[in-house]
């Protein structure tokens, strides 16, 4: 799974608070069972102990939430965390004590164990908060909790926004961008780094957490042009303004450095969604690979015996954020030492396809080596299918929103494929429909949708009459 530093700053805070919730619940149960074993030298615990421990764990998660312990702002103060956690845990203890009296199990409960549990959990909570304090201080020192912002807008409004953003110690404006070059090379001490097109290129090379657009003082046409260029970028994009002048696709509202911001584009997979997707790919991908290894061995032998050349075919394709990746497939065509750089799509009765390759392509067995791409982290089990570089550049120029497919990792199977849009796309309309299904998947991603697509792939996704 990806290191937490690979997430944007806002997502990292969400992940930290989520992990803290889970840690608190585990500590409540862990300390209770450890002390019971210490007192009785056994883990054969009466059922009413389980009831008490479960009740305490559930109440802890709720009372701590009500106390505001998991708010990102409260993480900055360790003393406030400890005081609030002590109050929440005491309320939990009182609620459990009331439960014990109501159910009349006090005479069977070990009072020494209960008292030690109360103080033991409090000590564990306190130590956890000091560990978090130490880790946050280290993260701040390395800039891991600082939001890296790209600002679009270099005129008067942009300068005012920039001045306010720079007052926030957790914000770093990495560059200013605009449609027209300003006279200065730097604006309020921040470098001017070019046009919006330059920004689109930059997000593939550097970590940019958010894009802030300060262009309320521009024409609606100019703003629409900027949004059209940023629509396919897999980064949260926010507009510093109100919606009265422009027809914007507003998806939410937040503040940054005291500035009110409207969310116009959002990353399709944020925080826990990205974690769940990574776990799905690694765990399911590993088990599917184990099941597929015997089939892959047979296919590899068949490919080798059928025609001269390597068993695996490697091809450069575009992956997440339009970065090039190497995709693996079983070779299904005759080995060509000088392949056509335009990469013509396979057609019916294509002479380049071998006998074994024809079967592999129709059954999708040639895609099985992409499980290694999934375990490498360059692809997902489910996502938009990656296209050859030449095809990508061709269709990006003629299909609106085509590059939006790269806001997530490409997949071995996808929503378009299980709905029949697989194989040769000999007309722009076929590719346009595939793109529509891919964008629907990205905008509506969920773990259940992924599992549905995987299940549909088993029944309808492997064989298709359009695959040659």
Helix/strand layout:
Layout: H1 9-40, H2 47-66, H3 78-103, H4 111-141, E1 147-152, H5 156-165, E2 171-177, E3 186-187, E4 190-191, H6 196-202, E5 210-213, H7 220-230, E6 236-239, E7 252-256, E8 259-265, H8 272-306, E9 312-318, E10 324-330, H9 355-363, H10 370-376, E11 380-382, H11 389-398, E12 411-413, H12 415-418, H13 428-443, H14 447-461
Parallel strand pairs: 1-2, 1-5, 5-6, 11-12
Antiparallel strand pairs: 3-4, 6-8, 7-8, 9-10
InterPro entries: Bact_transf, EPS_sugar_tfrase, NAD(P)-bd_dom_sf, Undecaprenyl-P_gluc_Ptfrase
Family: Belongs to the bacterial sugar transferase family.
Membrane topology: Multi-pass membrane protein
Low-pLDDT residue intervals, each spanning 5 or more residues: 1-5
Strand content: 5-15%
Summed over residues and divided by their number, the pLDDT gives a mean of 83
The residue fraction in helices comes out at 40-55%
Number of strands: 12
Spatial extent as radius of gyration:
28 Å
Outline, from the CA principal axes?
flat
Count of runs of 4 or more consecutive helical residues: 14
Order of strands, main sheet, comes to 2-1-5-6-8-7
Largest sheet: 6 strands, mixed
GO biological process, one term: polysaccharide biosynthetic process
Family: Belongs to the bacterial sugar transferase family.
InterPro entries: Bact_transf, EPS_sugar_tfrase, NAD(P)-bd_dom_sf, Undecaprenyl-P_gluc_Ptfrase
Transmembrane segments: 15-36, 48-70, 82-102, 114-132, 283-303
